[in-house]
Specification:
This protein is an alpha/beta fold. Strands 6, 7, 8, 9, 10, 11, 12 and 14 form an eight-stranded mixed sheet that branches. The chain has a six-stranded parallel sheet with strand order 2-1-3-4-5-13, sandwiched between helices. It folds into two domains: 2-136 and 293-320, Response regulator (Rossmann fold, 3-Layer(aba) Sandwich); 138-290, Rossmann fold. The protein has helices at residues 2-23, 37-53, 68-81, 93-98, 100-106, 120-125, 138-152, 169-183, 214-227, 249-253, 257-261, 274-281, 293-308; strands spanning 25-30, 56-60, 85-88, 111-114, 133-135, 157-163, 196-198, 201-203, 208-209, 235-238, 266-270, 287-290, 316-318, 322-324. Residues 27-311 form the Periplasmic binding protein domain.
Length: 335
């Protein structure tokens, strides 16, 4: 009788444990790259939202550097692990849409995007690729970078644009936005057409692509700074924060601190992480336009939770930007 009692209790405990686990929703946040300060901030927002919701787990997992095949592999692994929803920063639209995302949709796993959405072409082919996009309006971010540059150099000049990948839809929209702001034209052809004198602005070369490699971005920055006088380059506009995410940025830029102050060379960069604001304070940059990855991570988990409860969600949620200069660096992100 006693053995029967203990056996019954053991079975009940096992069943109770199983039910508790089943009630926990596991949502995955998949960045373009794990070690980027921007995406680490999105992880923090994800974890915060999961704690607030309770019975929700945030799984943050991505490639160590931007690699669409590795990102696709990670997504497939998470599908096999049985996650209840996925938020992904899309590194390459067509490849993901035809591989791991296709698998997830077949299994009915809710998909949303954050920071980087699928391309318009991919969404036109399959409007059901994702339920929602959460992030910055990338075109407007690019325009804001261009407007900051215009404020520093009203007469225009030769510029170089830094970007990550030539096949990244969100970064291409930022580049397009920079060109639109400087040229004064809202023209879709600007996505692959270099500025050539419009309103006094000219691109010295095609964008410098670093493929998400911080060291490569800094090498490009170092080379441009060393040649800016000889080649008459007035500004560098980076549509991501790559150069400023390594502390060696200071060593590269400090020799040009006076030139930056005199606006002989202007540095305008996307993102406003804490370390980037220090560079503004120390006058090692002229301006930054930032996003809010922490809010993106929070909103992503909140949205996946709503989807899990069969509640409606907005198709697009734009997170407000921050505008930082050496004059307002201490307060620009406090809102």
């Amino acid at each position: 009788m006693r053995n029967l009692f203990y056996t019954t209790v053991f079975v009940l405990l096992v069943n109770t444990s199983h039910l508790a686990t089943a009630e926990t929703l596991r949502f995955a946040l998949i960045p373009k790259e794990e070690n980027n300060p921007f995406f680490l901030a999105s992880r923090d927002g994800c974890i915060s939202a999961a704690k607030e919701l309770k019975n929700v787990q945030c799984i943050f997992r991505g490639p160590s550097s931007i690699d669409v095949r590795r990102q696709d592999q990670i997504l497939s692994e998470l599908i096999e692990e049985g996650v209840d929803g996925i938020a992904i920063a899309v590194s390459q639209s067509d490849f993901l849409a035809s591989n791991s995302i296709h698998k997830a949709l077949k299994l009915g796993i809710p998909i949303i995007t954050y920071d980087a959405d699928f391309s318009k072409e991919s969404l036109t082919k399959n409007p059901n690729l994702r339920a929602s996009y959460i992030g910055t309006n990338d075109y407007e971010l690019g325009k804001a970078l261009g407007e900051q540059l215009k404020a520093e150099l009203p007469e225009g000049g030769n510029i170089i644009i830094q970007s990550g990948r030539p096949d990244s839809p969100n970064l291409n929209l930022r580049v397009m936005g920079v060109r639109a702001a400087l040229s004064g034209k809202d023209d879709a052809s600007l996505i692959d057409k270099l500025l050539n004198g419009e309103n006094g602005w000219k691109e010295f070369s095609k964008p410098l692509y670093n493929f998400g490699q911080f060291e490569r971005a800094q090498t490009d920055l170092k080379n441009v700074l060393a040649a800016h006088k000889r080649k008459n380059i007035a500004a560098i506009v980076a549509v991501g924060g790559w150069t400023q995410f390594l502390s060696s940025y200071r060593d590269i830029v400090e020799p040009y601190q006076q030139a930056i102050a005199n606006k002989e060379i202007v540095l305008i960069t996307a993102d406003t992480a804490d370390e980037q604001l220090v560079y503004l304070k120390d006058k090692l940059a002229n301006g930054n336009v930032g996003q809010n990855p922490y809010k993106m991570g929070r909103q992503a988990i909140m949205t996946l939770h709503r989807l899990s409860q069969k509640q409606p969600v907005a198709e697009v949620v734009y997170i407000p930007m921050t505008y930082c200069t050496p004059q307002n660096f201490a307060t620009c992100t406090k809102h």
